Amino acid sequence: MGESQTTIIGSIATIMTLVTMMVAIAPYTCRAMINNNHQNQLHPVILIPGAGGNQLEARLTDEYKGTSWLCNRFYPVKKDDGGWFRLWFDIGVLLAPLTECFAERMTLYYDLEADDYRNAPGVETRVSGFGSVQSLRYLDPSFKHITSYMEPLIKSIQDLGYKDSENLFGAPYDFRYGLASEGHPSDVGSTFLQNLKEFVENASNANGGIPVILVSHSLGGLFALQLLNRNPLSWREQYIKHFIALSAPWGGTVDEMLTFASGNALGVPLVNPLLVRNEQRSSESNLWLMPRQKNFPLETPLVVTPNSAYSSFDISRFLQDIGFEEGVHPYETRIQPLVEKLVAPGVPITCIVGNGVPTAETLYYGDEGFDKQPKIIYGDGDGTVNIASLLALEDEWKEEKNQTLKVIKLAGISHTSILKDDKALAQIINEIVVINSNISSSLVSSL
Ligand SMILES: *[C@@H]1O[C@H](CO)[C@@H](O)[C@H](O)[C@H]1NC(C)=O
Ligand SMILES: *[C@@H]1O[C@H](CO)[C@@H](O)[C@H](O)[C@H]1NC(C)=O
Ligand SMILES: *[C@@H]1O[C@H](CO)[C@@H](O)[C@H](O)[C@H]1NC(C)=O
């Protein structure tokens, strides 16, 4: 389905460019009649970022005991009156002693008795700016150039006539937390979904009652699908026009096994991955992104050591062997049942994914163990997410009659360049334009 849809999209690219130009002018002509003609109004867009894609603030209480003198006394330097400072992202964390302070404050703990995750003792966190796209633009506003995140995408959407907090919104969240399978509490993640639900309703109500377009990146797509699945069909039909998922890791990634085993320096050569490994292992949402059995077959080893091999069916044993036994129980009880089935929500979905970028497919560890970075064999994907995971919905829903699913593949586009690259942005914007003009079906059928 994805292949042919992509070809159709490709062959009508010229028409789409014309449409883009027409619609780029349209908002100005619409504005005058917006009050008496809701049909020409733009569908509100809500952006849901990926892991690490929005700012996160923290403050330290008396209960906080840093492991070093530096963390306790001097860092951070800049705080506001209430003691809040930016925990994620602050460029200072790239300096090794500060990396440790950062990592211990970001770390989550699984509380077996409560069956839920919580912050480190003495660390309060909050996500500010819910509703606006402001905190999705740059991770560190003091270093805009190198920490730009959704800024190019936001700018392109605004060029269509969208305005921040009027019909363009952002849904930042505490991306360290995830969601759990039914019957297990997940206070932070569920509160986010509840807020997001209410926010979708508010955004629609503020725009004459027309349904919204959800646009997610990466992990945000997994949250968005849960939002849809956890609300009744009548709600989805009333409030959701379309769901556009960019680079969504539906079936997890091998890259996540690398993160758990050896840490992930986030592409910053100055950072020692072992300094952030504990913190990364503690994140519930990271556990959510372990390779899923349906998309990574039993017979395919993903991690190989001199003594053993691990496929997606061996994640518990893998967690144990890398020295993260604490992860096994939450993984088996909360995560595995959650990812087992991807439920088709019935609202139209477009997945836009990059491919053809070398992506970790098998990790080979030597005698030195997991502290040493492995030799990596690469396969197809977007550089972070394997192709099988990016395309998981096509496979999962091939028998679903009521699910409209379109998949657009962009060769050479990486996991994050999808938010910046001109070719990728043009595709995303075309999709938003087509959804708004509601011409997609008539155009395709007239060809
Ligand atoms: C939705 O709107 C109501 C009424 O204005 C407001 O009280 C509530 O906080 C809003 N919810 C969200 C999540 O923004
Ligand atoms: C598809 O939608 C129709 C009409 O809403 C409904 O009657 C039918 O049960 C749905 N089928 C599936 C497989 O969900
Ligand atoms: C948009 O298209 C759908 C399906 O083609 C149609 O059912 C719906 O009425 C259209 N909406 C508007 C506002 O034209």
Automatic annotation (TrEMBL):
Matching Pfam families: LCAT
Keywords, in A-Z order: Membrane, Transmembrane, Transmembrane helix
Transmembrane segments: 7-28
Matching InterPro entries: AB_hydrolase_fold, LACT/PDAT_acylTrfase
A molecular-function term among this protein's GO annotations: O-acyltransferase activity
One GO BP annotation of this record: lipid metabolic process
The protein's name in its UniProt record: Lecithin-cholesterol acyltransferase-like 1
Organism the protein comes from: Tagetes erecta (African marigold)
